[in-house]
Amino acid sequence: MATSGKPRYIFIAPWPITPGTGVNEVILNLRETMKPAYDATIAVPSGRPAPPDQVPLKLPGLGYSWRSNLGFIALLPLTLFRLRSFVRGAIAVNPHFPDLEIFAFALLRRMRLGPKLILSVHGNDVTGALASAGVKRLLYRWLYASADVVIACSGALASKVRTLSPRARAAAVWNGVTHPGPVSEQRPLAAPYLVCVAGFVPKKAHQVLLSAYRQVLAARPDLHLVLIGNPGPENAPVAAALEAWGLEDKTEVLINLPHDQVWRWVKHAACFVLPSRDEPFGIAILEAALMRTPVVATRVGGIPEFLEDGVHGLLCEPDRPDELAAQILATLADPAAARDRAATFYERAASLTWERAFAGYRSKAALP
Q1: Which helix (H) or strand (E) holds 252?
Q2: Residues 356 and 327 sit within 8 Å (Cβ to Cβ)
Q3: Looking at residues 138-152, what average pLDDT do you find?
Q4: How far apart are CA 240 and CA 211, in angstroms?
Q5: Under a CB-based contact definition with an 8 Å cutoff, are residues 340 and 313 in contact?
Q6: Each residue's pLDDT tens digit, 354-366
Q7: Which residues are CB-contacts of 138 (< 8 A; sequence separation ≥ 6)?
Q8: Which residues, 6 or more positions from 104, have their beta carbon under 8 angstroms from its beta carbon?
Q9: How far apart are the first and last CA of the chain?
Q10: Rounded CA gap, 126 and 118, in Å?
Q11: How far apart are the C-alpha atoms of 143 and 146, rounded to whole Å?
């Protein structure tokens, strides 16, 4: 229950939330920004220990096996009773990265026994729902349609929501981006380098970047490549490609680098490159913009919504290493134009505050 006299706003987290990037960053920044207006609570239904400032919440599963579904149905009256008590006095319940685990919240809202339901989607959650089939796909469709609004981090992702659930009230609210403050002026690498910040998963297309980099080296043999990201299934293929193409001495691969150190690598890069095949939003690009680093990226997902080709950076089509190499070389060949684009992009990125994102949530959900 709220003790501040302000309306309660309940985040339903997909896992215990700790400082970091991605969904964690979104929830923590929204909570901090809305403090003057709402008493915000983070509830963690994952079954794992919640941090001291977050509330553990037990929810029965749904959609994974007939046995679990029968258990869900048997416990449903008790679950609805518990949840109604839990959300009493709240102005909104806001699950992030929603799964069928939050089905009971949607049912409570359908019965007009709960507050507004705001689903926040981030990319892989919608991709997973779109890949489902049969009864599970129908449940996702109903879940998304039951929300008062589904907030997507880009217009492109909102379109995917409507593909999954045509009756869903999907709206785009861009994430904010937070400037880290002073970043070291000491270069982490003496040689000029390109930098890519992306998890080692197939959609980030590291192999395309390596192919483009080989072409760039023909014109700029002094240029190094720095790959920064969390570990994933592409680590081994990337390592094998570097060895096969003789690029190991020209490339740095940095895994699980602390975020405060990532900023330094991005700031001093000759160019930030993101070759993704899909990108729901592209927060790493905006962080590069805050460092005034020239950007080359692919024209996918939410990226062209905030990055205008030739104005803020240079864009190319995905899975085309020739085009990617050409845009990188164009950036390096005209440093003055690259700096001008970076300065313009900085202004755009600096305007994407968490206050602006919170205002978008309030407006789309019609919250007081």
Answers
A1: strand 251-255
A2: no
A3: 97
A4: 13
A5: no
A6: 999 999 999 999 9
A7: none
A8: 59, 60, 76, 79, 80, 83
A9: 19
A10: 15
A11: 5
Edge-first strand order for the sheet with 8-12 is 55-56, 39-44, 8-12, 90-95, 116-121, 149-152, 170-172
Pairing of strands 295-298, 314-316: parallel
Q: Is the pLDDT reported for residue 241 higher than 70?
A: yes
Contact 91, 7 (CB under 8 A): yes
Confidence of residue 63 (pLDDT cuts 50, 70, 90): low
**Between β-strands 295-298 and 224-229, what pairing exists: parallel, antiparallel or unpaired?**
unpaired
Please give the Cα distance from 239 to 227 (Å, whole number). Answer: 11
* Whole-model pTM over 0.85: yes
Question: For the chain, what is the radius of gyration of the CA atoms?
Answer: 22
How far, in Å, CA of 338 to CA of 342, rounded?
6
Q: Which amino acid is residue 28, in one-letter code?
A: L
Nearest residue to 103 (alpha-carbon basis) of 128, 136, 132: 136
Q: Which domains does the chain have, with CATH numbers?
A: 8-176+353-365 (3.40.50.2000), 193-350 (3.40.50.2000)
Question: Which pLDDT belongs to residue 48?
Answer: 76
CA gap 331, 250 in Å, rounded: 20
As given in the structure block, the two tokens for residue 33 are 């920004």
Mean pLDDT along residues 273-301: 97
For residue 5, what pLDDT is reported?
81
Average pLDDT rounded to a whole number, residues 25-38: 96
| Residues 6 or more apart in contact with residue 200 via CB below 8 angstroms | 206, 229, 230, 231, 232, 233, 234, 235, 238, 255
Q: Would the CA dihedral through 114, 116, 122, 123 be positive or negative?
A: positive
Q: Which two tokens stand for residue 344?
A: 């313009």
Q: Classify residue 309 by its DSSP letter.
A: B
Please tell me the distance from the alpha carbon of residue 144 to that of residue 220, in angstroms, as a whole number: 50
DSSP 8-state symbol, 250: G
